[in-house]
Specification:
With 229 residues, the protein is mainly alpha-helical. It contains 13 helices and no strands. The longest helix is centred in the middle third of the chain and has 26 residues, at 123-148.
């Protein structure tokens, strides 16, 4: 268990650095919206949706209804549906499956996709610890931000770019390890086309649908050619 925990800690150091800063930013935003430490702790524990939580802070401050909050959160975090589909079989035999599904954020998903466990490390336990540590980092950052929200005089505009930078680094590492650049190229091209056609507020879900459709179709075509051969 000690070796597995050490392995998970090392794997999650990049997420720790990103989640602490962005979690602090979320805590500050929540505090300035009129909600303090208990709300930061509760939302980071039971919602744990990153961008969805930032949107939630604005909705709560505006007095939005529960239905509005639910629908908005679903739209903002719809990409997580595709993450879950990727890991259906991998999570099936895990006792911690419900938590693994719940905790599958962008960064945790990227780490698990590229995970290679050495001999002596239980893969399922390592996956669980990685997911748990990532959420602990997020909770810690949110609580610190909520405590310091009224005391920080600095302008935190743009701090959320830390997660964009982190995700870019993880993507580059995945492409380098796999050696197959086609999924990244298909995803990037689909996102670019949909961004031009639909704009920045509506491009994400359609680009994901196009990417998944093209990759699944390409995989089926490759399998058919191999079967014929």
């Amino acid at each position: 268990m000690r070796e597995t925990l050490r392995f998970a800690l090392l794997k999650t150091i990049p997420v720790l650095l990103g989640y602490l800063f962005l979690g602090i930013a979320f805590g500050v935003v929540l505090q300035r919206s009129g909600y303090g430490l208990p709300w930061a702790l509760l939302s980071s524990t039971v919602i744990y949706a990153g961008s969805g939580q930032f949107v939630m802070a604005d909705l709560l401050a505006a007095g939005a209804g529960l239905l509005t909050v639910a629908v908005t959160t679903l739209l903002v975090n719809s990409r997580h549906i595709f993450y879950g589909l990727t890991f259906i079989e991998r999570f099936r035999g895990m006792k911690t499956r419900p938590y693994m599904i719940f905790s599958l954020t962008d960064e945790t998903y990227s780490l698990l996709c590229a995970l290679e466990t050495p001999d002596g490390i239980d893969e399922n336990r390592a996956m669980f610890l990685i997911a748990l540590l990532d959420q602990c980092y997020w909770i810690l950052g949110g609580c610190i931000g909520a405590l310091l929200g009224q005391a920080l005089p600095v302008d935190l505009t743009g701090i959320d770019f830390a997660m964009t930078a982190l995700f870019t680094v993880i993507l580059v590492e995945q492409v380098r390890r796999s050696g197959n650049r086609l999924p990244a190229l298909v995803g990037g091209l689909s996102a670019l086309v949909m961004l031009v056609l639909l704009g920045p507020d509506a491009f994400l879900l359609p680009s994901l649908l196009v990417t998944v459709t093209l990759l699944v179709a390409g995989r089926a075509l490759t399998a058919r050619r191999e079967a014929d051969a």
